[in-house]
């Protein structure tokens, strides 16, 4: 309701209603003012007719002097009226001086013409009555200008005061309407300037919302758009920075094995059959495997980010799946000199609705990170643990932590893949890293 009261449409409708009400109010107000300022200048025709005929009856048998005296008294009450009477012989007796259009002696033709003129004359109200109710005693006439008997004959357009008031009212409505639309125009121009002024950042400035009407809602929406645009620009800058770092890290990840391959290829080229050449060939094969794994991770990361990596979820026995993954990595852990601590109780059931291939890929990336970055700690642990009221997998090492520099540290694609897969399978994962090692928790909260 508050918005409706402050709405521009409501205000404009109120302005129109005011204008529509003011037009009929002026004539009515003028008529009321006219009657108030001229209390004795307007008469009801019904009362005049009844009064005149009643007076004619009372003059039954009256003498000429009495009739004249009576009519003089009536004329005193109605000074705007013209009164005269005609005696039995047809002679006109005037209360005042004789009007030019009234004959002194009436004939039949003049009587008929007078009767016809009464019906056609719209400016004079005329009442006739037989004296004493009998034609033998004559008849008398009462005439009153219709401006004193008919409100429609009031000189409405001829009154200067009314014309001034009417003009002031019309002018007031025009001024109020003009101010209304000028105010709207000023607010729209202010909003237009704010949209055009993008400054050095390329993002418009927010505008102050002063009213809760339609333009106020538009200003509020504009501010929301500006805020979203600003955050989008900030995200773009952050993404550009991350993209630059990512490309630099990827370049490092590719350059390192390629440099090693180039060096050992030179050895193989010089002495292919020597023990050193055979050893270099094994190194080349291993490094090519690392490059292939990096390329696979790049492709997986791209597909996951685009939402195009195939996901087929089903109920998976997680402990059994983790046990199989550890068995595959066990020889490599032993070869690299890791102490392997596995605690996966067989009597504990842990079933998640996930994609088994995605889960295996997550474990492979985490185990690979342990081999590459936590070799100095010489420890890898895989346990089932309770954390914050939910059962989870815990993969731990005793390396230097994720924040410490490492010669093998790259773009972190493996952890990015783990994060994307966990998010798409509604898994929760946490990393707790320090100089004493890293613990990664993966679970499905209830």
Automatic annotation (TrEMBL):
GO terms for molecular function: ATP binding; phosphorelay sensor kinase activity. SUPFAM superfamilies: ATPase domain of HSP90 chaperone/DNA topoisomerase II/histidine kinase, HAMP domain-like, Homodimeric domain of signal transducing histidine kinase. The keyword Transmembrane applies. It is a multi-pass membrane protein. Residues 182-234 form the HAMP domain. It is found in: Cell membrane. The chain crosses the membrane at residues 12-33, 162-182. Pfam families: HAMP (PF00672), HATPase_c (PF02518), HisKA (PF00512). GO terms for cellular component: plasma membrane. Keywords: ATP-binding, Cell membrane, Kinase, Membrane, Nucleotide-binding, Phosphoprotein, Transferase, Transmembrane, Transmembrane helix, Two-component regulatory system. This is histidine kinase. Its EC number is 2.7.13.3. It catalyses: ATP + protein L-histidine = ADP + protein N-phospho-L-histidine. Its main location: membrane. Residues 249-446 form the Histidine kinase domain. The keyword Transcription does not apply. It comes from the Bacteria. It is an enzyme of class 2 (transferase).
């Amino acid at each position: 309701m508050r918005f409706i009261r402050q709405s521009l449409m409501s205000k404009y409708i109120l302005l129109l209603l005011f204008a529509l009400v003011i037009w009929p109010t002026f004539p009515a107000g003028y008529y009321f003012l006219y009657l108030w300022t001229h209390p004795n200048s307007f008469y009801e025709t019904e009362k005049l007719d009844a009064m005149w005929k009643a007076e004619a009856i009372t003059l039954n048998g009256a003498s000429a002097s009495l009739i004249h005296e009576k009519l003089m008294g009536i004329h005193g009450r109605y000074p705007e009226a013209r009164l005269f009477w005609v005696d039995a012989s047809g002679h006109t007796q005037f209360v005042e001086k004789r009007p030019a259009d009234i004959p002194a002696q009436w004939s039949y033709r003049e009587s008929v013409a007078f009767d016809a003129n009464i019906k056609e004359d719209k400016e004079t109200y005329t009442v006739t009555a037989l004296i004493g109710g009998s034609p033998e005693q004559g008849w008398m006439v009462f005439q009153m200008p219709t401006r004193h008997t008919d409100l429609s004959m009031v000189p409405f357009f001829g009154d200067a005061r009314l014309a001034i008031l009417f003009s002031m009212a019309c002018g007031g409505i025009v001024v109020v309407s003009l101010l209304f639309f000028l105010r709207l125009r000023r607010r729209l121009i202010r909003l237009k300037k704010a949209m055009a002024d993008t400054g050095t950042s390329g993002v418009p400035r927010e505008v102050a919302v002063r009213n809760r009407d339609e333009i106020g809602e538009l200003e509020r929406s504009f501010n929301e758009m500006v805020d979203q645009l600003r955050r989008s620009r900030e995200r773009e800058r952050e993404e550009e920075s991350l993209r630059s770092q990512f490309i630099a890290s990827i370049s490092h990840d590719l350059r390192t094995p390629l440099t090693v391959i180039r060096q050992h290829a030179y050895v193989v080229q010089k002495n292919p059959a020597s023990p050193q050449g055979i050893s270099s060939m094994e190194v080349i094969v291993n490094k090519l495997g690392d490059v292939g794994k990096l390329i696979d991770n790049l492709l997986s990361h791209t597909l996951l980010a685009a939402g195009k990596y195939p996901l087929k979820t089903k109920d998976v026995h997680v402990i059994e799946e983790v046990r199989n993954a550890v068995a595959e990595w066990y020889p490599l852990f032993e070869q690299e000199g890791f102490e392997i601590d596995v605690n996966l109780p067989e009597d504990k059931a842990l079933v998640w609705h996930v994609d088994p291939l995605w889960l295996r890929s997550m474990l492979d990336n985490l185990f690979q990170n342990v081999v590459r970055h936590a070799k100095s700690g010489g420890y890898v642990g895989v346990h089932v643990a309770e954390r914050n009221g939910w059962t989870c997998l815990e993969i731990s090492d005793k390396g230097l932590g994720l924040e410490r520099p490492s010669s093998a540290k790259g773009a972190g694609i493996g952890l990015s893949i783990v994060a994307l897969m966990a998010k798409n399978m509604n898994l929760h994962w946490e990393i707790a890293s320090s100089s004493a090692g890293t613990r990664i928790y993966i679970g499905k909260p209830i």
